[in-house]
Write a structure and sequence with these properties.
By secondary structure, the protein is an alpha/beta fold. It folds into two domains: 90 residues, Ubiquitin-like (UB roll) (Roll), CATH 3.10.20; 353 residues, 3-Layer(aba) Sandwich (Rossmann fold). The strands form five sheets. The protein has a five-stranded mixed sheet, sandwiched between helices. β3 and β4 form a beta hairpin. It is globular and about 75 Å long. It starts with a strand and ends in a 10-residue tail after the last helix. The relative contact order is 0.12. It is found in: Membrane. One of its GO terms (biological process) is ATP synthesis coupled electron transport. InterPro entries: 2Fe-2S_ferredoxin-like_sf, 2Fe-2S_ferredoxin-type, 4Fe4S_Fe-S-bd, 4Fe4S_Fe_S_CS, Cytosolic_Fe-S_CAF, Fe_hydrogenase, Fe_hydrogenase_lsu_C, Fe_hydrogenase_ssu. Keywords: 2Fe-2S, 4Fe-4S, Iron, Iron-sulfur, Membrane, Metal-binding, NAD, Oxidoreductase, Repeat, Translocase. One of its GO terms (molecular function) is NADH dehydrogenase (ubiquinone) activity.
Amino acid sequence: MEMVNITIDGQKVAVPKTSTVLDAALSLGIKVPTLCYHPELRVEGACRVCMVEVEGARTLVASCVYPVNEGMVVRTNTAAVREARKTVVELLLANHPTDCLSCQRNLNCELQTIAADVGVREIRFDGEKKNYPLDAKNPSLVRDQSKCILCGRCIRACSERQGVHVYSFANRGFNTTVVPAFDLGLDEVSCTYCGQCAAVCPTGAIVEKDDTEAVWAAINDPSKHVIVQTAPAVRVALGEALGLANGSIVTGKMVASLKRLGFDKVFDTNFSADLTIWEEGSELIDRLTNGGKLPMITSCSPGWVNYIELKYPDLLDHLSTAKSPQQMFGALAKTYYAEKVGIDPKDIVSVSIMPCTAKKAEAARPEMNSSGYQDVDYVLTTRELGRMIREAGITFNNLPETEFDAPLGVGSGAGVIFGATGGVMEAALRTVAKMVSGKELDNIEFEAVRGMNGIKEAAVPLKEGLTAKVAIAHTLANARVILEKIRAGEADYHFIEIMACPGGCSGGGGQPIITSAEHRQKRIDAIYECDKCSELRKSHDNPAVKELYDTYLGKPLGEKSHHLLHTHYHPQKKC
């Protein structure tokens, strides 16, 4: 790789010729403020907050897009640079709402942080604060155009990372906005509700729909029995929302905090993740042996399910009919659990804590009522739970390690790894191999399906004479590549896992905001650490699931399990 030598603030450094000035500064540990820049998205140089002085240049330059060259001398901390940055931020603030104290992103807003960092103490300009109507008619996301700073991150995340292309710039000059096509609401366009736009938005212009007040009301209603399930990826991200290090494993403290908040029972979605493997694994074997539609594709990620319904309805028969772990749990909470503890299901309020904004839309689907009621009443993101814990004044790090409640709180390590891309596939292979061969695997760790490559492929021997060809994709842009291969008849896979978000649920749209792939990787590493430390590591060894089948469901794919745990997906018709 060709290197060039440059000097930044008196420090000499050799960097690749393809680097930008910002890249070089970051390599030296020099902090340059940015807003439109995001390390995982194409650079655009729109906001100009990252301006620096380059010797010989006619004006200050945007460091995020300015290329390095041999002998370049850069200064990031001159009076002119500081004044220019402050002016840019003041101009942004002149048109920005001043409701910071009531904004969902208060104390976690990049514009707010940069205003403090560059020393803004007054706003010298009179701007025009426009009042746009809220886009809040969908179950998952709220858009407030008045808080948009036109950084374009949501446009790039939706188009480059997800390949959905919901957002674009509209109008010109002071009237420029970021909107879906024809300025329609997200409920009217081909939005999958994955929340990656909210995950990269630097302000409160796109946030998850906040359901915390409804959950507080349920908790405070003495006539209601309020239960909660927690997804695998929440336990490795919640700590970040409460001041702990990235990737901290906080399972026991999370359970303790939920009990302190007032939930009557705290259960683990790992239980129904294990159940999903029993049902989905049995479905795969049934398709392999009885000539069903192949390849079969997982249906755990609701953003992905929305995508195939919207964009590839002709391929819906490839989806597994198994519900997601969230929805399986919800159906059992108001049937099996209600019967077991003698509570009228109308008095049960079922809450889930998810890393995903699309889970809110999934719970609201009209067909998700196989218990006779809405199976999951409320879905909170990891961020919402973090806010509830802070609101309750709970000192999270001082909480004791607490166990999940029985019977829906028993989960395996295979259930835990649902939280990382490739995890559903690996969990399924651990059990499907046992189902078809009758023998336990000597090695249950399938390294070939792990890792952050956008698309992974593997051939996995299940028994003598039977090898499963599998594929794993994360992000919807990569899902499209897989689907085009299926449509063209070029996909000779048996089983495919697709997750809508980068890294799978660990990078979900409802997780605490992150700014790098390394940050996400720490969560994924923690997921696999949870698996290694689990007493049970295979879904078919879960005694609580075995008891469920023995005493209530009968068998996988049986009449009762099919009614409660399976569904059929259908084309969505939007603009």
